[in-house]
Amino acid sequence: MEITVLGAGVIGLTTAYYLNASGHRVTVVDRRSQVGQETSYANGAQLSYSYVAPLAGPGVVSKIPGWLLRDDSPMRFRPSADPALWRWCLQFLRACTRQKNQRSTRHLLKLSFLSRSLMHKLVVDEPTLDFDYTRSGKLVLHRDEKALASAVDLLEFQRTLGCEQLALDREACVRTEPALESIRHEIAGGIYTASEDTADCYRFCVGLEKLLRRRGVVFELSADISALKPAPGGRVEAWAGSRRLPGEQVVVATGCASAKLLKSIGIDVPVYPLKGYSLTVPIRSGDIAPCISVTDFAHKIVYARLGERLRVAGMADMTGYSDALDHRRLDVLRLESKAAFPMAGDYCAADEWAGLRPATPSGMPIVGSTPFNNLWLNVGHGALGFTLATGCAQLLNDLIAQRPTAIDCAMFKLGARS
Q: Domain spanning 61-94+135-197+272-356: which CATH class is it, in words?
């Protein structure tokens, strides 16, 4: 079949990869002049297969008022008249129950484990891909005894679902990652997972583009996807300006832009942007930077080493669709990272970035068919786009081909309730 994939971030490109591998003629369309220029560009760089529990959970609601009142909080909210924002917030609050959180976590872990297997296979199958990929392992650091106890409880639950994790005390945390020595006295303990990876998502996207071009995939970049229009026979057509785009089948993988694009044809997807920030810090000779992936749970900041660079990322701002840099937020990120790893690199020379994560209230991506018989969705991955990309792409590939899927994907379909 001839298939058009709308979106050239990590979701669109992995979708194109698996569709091409199945023998389809694929065209990838994006409004940017290069691939991977939006959410994929400078994300947290963690492939966190065992850490996919949704933000919506029973302990979150009580924290939100405190977060919203602090300038340095990990989450920030700016009220607006946008009805989509308030619908998203109400749906988020309804998802903040233990039952819903655990059910979503079960399904997301199955999807992430599928993604892990596929990523490991892809790295072997495509040795020309060079994207600072490392099986680094991950340490989630806790500064508070109560938070650590809750994490150990979650560890026990996740063990029943196939996760292999260890609870570490303060000394074991520092032995596992010696770069934590400077904040040894602040550490209560941590959860270590050996199976987590780190990689540069943007370089992964660039590598996939080169590979796919060699295999005949067509790229139409700098093409503003202006509309989806109903067509005879229960189909849709994708348009860029006055030009109809090719494709018997159309896949929407346009991240935060998906909600507006789909609304024009009567499809409501609960996707809203959560703005995140990152610093990419050059590591100098003699610097003491972490080698494993680290998440500072209290500050909601992640650290991932990418060769001679340290990626520092965090925060979630519900402030609309602008990806403009907020230097106050970046200053907080720099201050916290310098306190955690003071000798990790040249923070003054760090590259600054902000991007919009396309999040659903439940934390569940939307993957599958629509009421139109040639329109497919792969949207709403939030902060887990890189982690879940290969699994979601393979699921969609199988659904389009009407093949059995590796896991039950009913919970990821449009309109499913978590």
A: alpha beta
Per domain, the residue ranges of the chain are 61-94+135-197+272-356
Express each pLDDT in 30-87 by its tens digit.
999 999 999 999 999 999 999 998 888 887 777 777 766 676 788 888 888 889 999 9
Q: Rounded to an integer, what distance in angstroms lies between the CA atom of residue 247 and that of residue 237? A: 8
Residue 71's pLDDT is 67
At 99-112, the pLDDT tens digits run 999 999 999 999 99
Please give the C-alpha separations between residue 132 and each of 45, 385, 386, in angstroms, as whole numbers: 10, 17, 14
Amino acid (one-letter) located at 160: T
**What one-character-per-residue DSSP string does 365-406 give?**
-EEEE-SSTTEEEEE--GGGHHHHHHHHHHHHHHHHTTPPPS
Q: Phi/psi of residue 204, each to 5°?
A: -60, -45
Strand pairing report for 227-231 and 138-142: unpaired
- Cα–Cα distance measured from residue 81 to residue 75, given in angstroms and rounded to the nearest whole number: 19
